[in-house]
Amino acid sequence: MAKVISGKDLAKKIKEDIAAKVPELTAKYGRAPHLAVILVGEDPASQSYVKSKGKDAEQVGYRSTTIRLPEDTPESKLLEIIDELNKDEQTDGILVQLPVPAHIDEDRIIEAIAKEKDVDGFHPANVAALWQKRDCVYPCTPKGVIRMLDEAGVEIAGKRAVVIGRSNIVGLPMAKMLLDRNATVTIAHSRTANLAEVTREADILVAAVGRLRMVKADLVKPGAVVIDVGVNRDPETGKLAGDVDYQEVEPIASVITPVPGGVGPMTRACLMENTLECYLNSQDKK
Ligand code: NDP
User: Fold this and answer.
1) Among residues 48, 40, 49, which one has the least CA distance to residue 67?
2) Which fold has domain 30-114?
3) CB-ligand 1 contact for 170 (6 Å cutoff)
4) Distance 169 CA to ligand 1 centre (A)
5) Tens of pLDDT along 254-263?
6) Which amino acids are annotated catalytic?
7) Ligand 1, atom nearest to 211 Cα
8) Using CA positions, which residue lies closest to atom 39 of ligand 1?
9) Is the Cβ atom of 233 under 6 angstroms away from ligand 1?
10) Would the pLDDT of 120 be above 90?
């Protein structure tokens, strides 16, 4: 039976810690941290993510602004709004909910957000800083995973870690952050030959694929720590489920994260942390 890391509980604790600090900071600096979230279009999943982020921000005592734009918003209009927020001294964090509609260039949008306000940690300058081991805003999902591993008392240094997935927002920064904690890291992807042979080497296995229950017991070394980043909708039940077949893998893993209630809430808690960091950095510069 694996130890289950509740991202929900840890996220609650992180948010409570932030909420406890906010009144004092608000008194000291004359205003609360402010997170601005922009949503273009009406994708139901994105709407729900944006709503949760706004709710979290309010819960911890931040000022929260959600800017909802119609699906056909021109890229130029979105860039204009980002520019205004960049210049606004009362805004600490800017997040554009991804994906944006196809007529908008996602890379251009990410680059337009001032790197000091890039609470997602997606700006190329932040990405470069991460890979060069310089000060950066850490992307929320891998940051949340590392926090969960630490909370569970998992030793990362010297361990063999395998990350399945190599996206810019999850797989690659995840691998880099594990590497920076002195794990020996392998990145697997859709072209990996004999995936099971690779993943069965892992002491720490992170699945960030987006394929419902693809990680079966035969992909997992007994006693491994298994982190499930994937969020998928089970077509049979309509419920959310991960990339890991929890029923099969939980009995053989030493530590596992559930979906829902695992990495997802931690991603949002780390977004709150990043917003606080951006706020403190901007106040320090004054
Ligand atoms: P992407 O689609 O950008 O990347 C998926 C990765 O999985 C790719 O690198 C792809 O390989 C790899 N892959 C696809 N099929 C296979 C396969 N059969 N075997 C091995 N590797 C495969 O997704 P994201 O990284 O954006 O997200 C991954 C998952 O994490 C999704 O379910 C997403 O919803 C979830 N997510 C969850 C978050 C949270 O807070 N919990 C936050 C962000 C994402 P290749 O590069 O070769 O195409």
Assistant:
1) 40
2) Rossmann fold (3.40.50)
3) yes
4) 9
5) 999 999 999 9
6) 53, 97, 120
7) 32
8) 264
9) no
10) yes
Span(s) in the chain for CATH 3.40.50.10860: 30-114
264 burial type by CB count under 10 A (0-12 exposed, 13-18 middle, 19+ buried): buried
Say yes or no: CB of residue 166 within 6 Å of ligand 1. Answer: yes
* Residues 133-148, mean pLDDT to the nearest whole number: 97
Across 186-200, average pLDDT? 98
What's residue 284's pLDDT?
A: 83
Query: What's the CATH code, domain 140-263?
Result: 3.40.50.720
Q: Can you tell me which residue has the tokens 């000060």?
A: 135
**What CA–CA distance (Å, rounded) separates 98 from 113?**
13
Residue ranges matching CATH 3.40.50.720 in the chain? 140-263
Any atom of ligand 1 within 6 Å of the Cβ of 199: no
> What does the pLDDT look like over 9-34, one tens digit per residue?
999 999 999 999 999 999 999 999 99
Joined tokens for residue 93: 């964090």
Reading the block at residue 213, the tokens are 């229950």
Query: Average pLDDT for residues 55-67, to the nearest whole number?
Result: 98
211 lines ligand 1 (CB under 6 A): yes
Residue nearest to atom 16 of ligand 1 (CA): 190
